[in-house]
User: Fold this.
Amino acid sequence: MENRTLGESGLTVPVVGMGTWQTFDVHGTQAEENASVVVDRALAAGANFFDSSPMYGESERVLGGTLQGRRDKALVATKVWTNSMAEGREQMERAFAYFGGYVDLYQIHNLVNWKEHLATVEGLKQEGKIGAIGATHYQASAFGELKTVMKTGRITTIQIPYNPMERDVEKEILPLAADIGLGVIVMRPLFQGKLMRKNISESQLKPLAEFGVRTWAQALLKWVLSDPRCHVAIPATSKPERMTENAAAGSGPWFGPEERTYVAKLAMA
Ligand SMILES: NC(=O)c1ccc[n+]([C@@H]2O[C@H](COP(=O)([O-])OP(=O)(O)OC[C@H]3O[C@@H](n4cnc5c(N)ncnc54)[C@H](OP(=O)(O)O)[C@@H]3O)[C@@H](O)[C@H]2O)c1
Assistant:
């Protein structure tokens, strides 16, 4: 697994991590044990960067549970997501309880009430309870506001969608992030799983074999990670074997422009 440093945050992360939206929003022994096995596979493969949010129902609690006794092996990114400052503090208290009193990266989810929450997380960072501060948004219509936040100098990472079907970040967000030296976390690398519904054959993947690509998911992850402005992709999965498969995309050789064009064409066909 290759590691990259999330820009000025100084956080070094594996290039493949894991998201928890929907997949970790589960209840009950069997589902939570399954989540734990997904995390076992992630850790075994060196994909130890986990992203969550209070917006994802049970996910923070379930992720925290899977990390019991091995919190030190993981890098945890979570978020604050509420208009209310008081509720934001409550979300943070809950997260600290789930994640052993420390969150490696705190993000303002979808920029909701970012001015007030930034002040709070900055205080917590000074207290040593947070490693770094970031912001996320999933919609191109919010990228103007995201640029404003990026330029404040108060965040060191952004989390944005990037895959062959969602390329808006190429226009301004990725160039600006590279200019300022921000860490870039890529959400939805598989287009929320929608790109996995395409029937890509073995023979279509053959030209990518020399890059270590065996599956369509790996081709899409390598497509993202071959852009050096992107530091980590966080595909979500509820299936242990898919965690192993996704993590295997986390080392070179990386695609050049030709292979990226080839994968984008497969995605759009
Ligand atoms: N605003 C925000 O801050 C924001 C917004 C969106 C997402 N995010 C973060 O980004 C993470 C990733 O985005 P996402 O979950 O929306 O989408 P994604 O990672 O692009 O796709 C996830 C879907 O792909 C499937 N999948 C994963 N690996 C696979 C494989 N190897 N083969 C076949 N199918 C596979 C999963 O199904 P199975 O469970 O069946 O494997 C799941 O349904 C989220 O979990 C969340 O942490 C943040």
Q: What stands out?
A: The radius of gyration is 18 Å. The pocket of NAP is lined by residues 19-21, 23, 51, 109-110, 136, 138, 159, 187-193, 196, 217, 234-239, 242, 245-246 (CB under 6 Å).
